Amino acid sequence: MRLEENNLMTKNILICGGTGLLGPIAGNVLSGQFSVRIHGKSKKADCQGNLISYAETEALLNKEMPDVILNLVALTNVDTCEEDLQLAYNLNVEIPKNLALWCKKNKSLLIQISTDHIYNSAYASEEDVNLVNNYALTKLAGEASVLMVDGMVLRTNFFGRSQTEGRVSFSDWVLKSLKAREPVNLFKDVFFNPLSMKTLSELLAVVINSPHPGVYNLGSREGLSKEDFARTLGDMAGLQHHFAKSVSFADLDLKAARPLDMRMNVEKFELTFEVTLPTLKSEIEGILTSEI
Fold it and tell me: Reaction(s) catalyzed by this protein (predicted)?
């Protein structure tokens, strides 16, 4: 049953790449409203398939017949994207294209999770693109196919307690380091405005229930530097952080360039979906009290 015929019934959601960091939490939240299936490499996934191949993509989707595809598949390691552009292209461009081709034929909705890495200025709007590495380049290129089939692109960043074995979020790393009193470097000149994975997942439900094609920045209001984020998290968790070192990005010798200011203007999303997004400090507090 296609999306336009399915408004009064449970939509079938397929989360591609759903065994990563965000997938388990998104699946848990969305399953409260929709019929959710998880695609991934893990044996815990409901289905597997090589989405780089259109033939395998088509076979998988013809079997699953989702009304909505939420694509979380991506090569997110910035240095790997710089070293292996072909791999970055396959995962960040080819897969969204294959999903989009199937959605066009079957009139399904494609929601692409993109990144704040395509920006490099304070509170950038959706038009203020500034690419500094291959990760940003391929993620932006992957958006084009989604938009051609009236899909939705959500540029975002997220944190929170991981439910995936072997994967840790930025906030997980901060808490672990502070609890162990390990010396860590905290960037004083890198800024962002992410959401918790729980809040992001709840907003995905809003988007699925009332889709509006296009590109949207989806983050918290009033962003912070990564240093201030970590120290705020430490304070709220009652942890000492005097042994953490304040550093500039230029102090480290990394293979790929990174944007220094990824804070996004989120007004378009708020106005379109009639919501008020939370502040980053309230999101930090939320991950310390939430069960998810």
Answer: dTDP-beta-L-rhamnose + NADP(+) = dTDP-4-dehydro-beta-L-rhamnose + NADPH + H(+)
- 158 membership: H or E segment, kind and range: strand 158-159
Q: CA distances (Å), 129 to each of 111, 171, 289, in order?
A: 20, 26, 35
23: three-class secondary structure by DSSP = helix
Instruction: Using DSSP, state whether 173 is helix, strand or coil.
Output: helix
Domain containing residue 240: CATH number: 3.40.50.720
Is residue 108 within 8 Å of 102, Cβ to Cβ?
A: yes
pLDDT tens per residue across span 29-84: 999 999 999 999 888 899 999 999 999 999 999 999 999 999 999 999 999 999 99
DSSP state of 32: T
Which range of residues forms the domain containing residue 152? 3-289
Side chain identity at 253, as an amino acid letter? D
Question: How many structural domains are present in the chain?
Answer: 1
* Residue 64 identity (one-letter amino acid): E
- Measured distance CA(217)–CA(194) in Å, rounded: 10
pTM: 0.94
- Taking residue 132's Cβ as centre, other Cβ atoms within 10 Å add up to 17
